[in-house]
Design brief:
Elements (H helix, E strand, L loop, with lengths): L1 H28 L6 H4 L4 H10 L6 H13 L14 H36 L4 H15 L2 H15 L19 H31 L2 H8 L4 H29 L3 H6 L5 H10 L3 H29 L12
Pfam families: BPD_transp_1 (PF00528), BPD_transp_1_N (PF19300)
Subcellular location: Cell membrane
Protein name: ABC transporter permease
Length: 319
């Protein structure tokens, strides 16, 4: 286990290095720079001082080496567009907003999706099955942007039940201001419903056809006991694999949804930073996303072993 963990840690560092390098040079390949609009209106001396402050007057490779060196120390630098803004401040102020939105979407979407998937599997070939399949195809085919705009028009505009934009602040950040969270939560949960409904249904149908289910039936176990002890337990292995990735994705923000509803989360700021070529912020957020996903992938491997003891990590396999 220790050897496996160390190997994965080295792989993680190398992956982060590649991601940061690719992000840096892709932003550098975009024509212009984040200071051009401001600097063009300044006197020559002031413009040169501004470029020197952020190191944009230096060669690309020199800036790359400096950026990577600072990143290894945990310093991604100050925002080029918004003075005083750093990745650390961004995480403290905006990540909780994205985390609440994502967790609400995930909890609602995954719960409803699993229930619908189980219903479709148990009622295979019936009207309920066809309705669930049709619903999942519809939900996964329509973009979040379309759902968000429709919900805004109907429930915020026409009916006036909920506010169009905004998000709870202060003491209401985590457990208050529910009227602001309803439409964004619904907009984001539809994708989870579609994914998990199809995932659990497919997994359950695969388990139902296994020989040990026939053996359990031949022993006289009731249908309810077979479903609880054998079908559901083994069907949740693929779900346990997908769930950690879902958690990582929901915590880091819903880019399009936060823009539609003007939610001050990390996702909205990420889109703004990319548009403004704000390298320190984009690089910091990209590395943050990468770290979360890599850690989640490692935990998924461990979780696999916990759920199904038959699965072994590479270092534990018999040679």
């Amino acid at each position: 286990m220790l050897k496996y963990t160390l190997r994965r840690f080295v792989e993680m560092l190398f992956t982060l290095f590649l991601i940061a390098t690719a992000t840096f040079f892709m932003l550098e390949a975009i024509p212009g720079n984040p200071l051009s609009e401001r600097a063009d209106r300044m006197p020559k001396q002031a413009r040169e001082a501004l470029y020197a402050k952020y190191g944009l007057d230096r060669p690309v490779m020199e800036r790359y080496v400096k950026q990577m060196t600072n990143m290894m120390k945990g310093d991604f630098g100050e925002s080029i567009v918004y003075a005083g803004q750093t990745v650390g401040k961004l995480i403290r102020t905006r990540l909780p907003v994205s985390a609440r939105l994502g967790l609400q979407q995930m909890l609602l979407g995954v719960t409803v999706g699993l229930l619908l998937g189980i219903l479709a599997a148990m009622k295979r070939g019936t009207v309920a099955d066809y309705l669930v399949v049709g619903l999942t195809v519809f939900l996964i085919s329509v973009p979040h942007l379309v759902f968000g705009l429709l919900l805004q028009k109907i429930f915020a505009g026409t009916l006036g039940w909920f506010p169009i934009i905004g998000w709870p602040e202060g003491k209401d950040l985590w457990i208050g201001g529910w009227k602001y969270t309803v439409l964004p939560t619904l907009t984001g949960c539809f994708g989870y419903i579609a994914v998990y409904a199809r995932l659990i249904k497919t997994s359950m149908l695969d388990v139902v056809n296994q020989e040990y289910i026939l053996t359990a039936e031949s022993k006289g176990l009731s249908k309810g006991a077979i479903i609880r002890r054998h079908i559901l337990r083994n069907s949740f292995i693929p779900v346990m694999t997908q769930l950690p990735l879902t958690i990582a994705m929901c915590i880091t923000g819903s880019f399009f949804i936060e823009n539609i509803f003007s939610i001050p989360g990390i996702g909205q700021y990420y889109v703004t930073a990319v548009n403004n070529q704000d390298l320190p912020i984009v690089l910091g957020e990209t590395v943050l996303l990468a770290v979360l996903y890599i850690i989640v992938l490692f935990l998924t491997d461990i979780l696999y072993v916990a759920v199904d003891p038959r699965i072994q990590l590479p270092d534990h396999k018999k040679r």
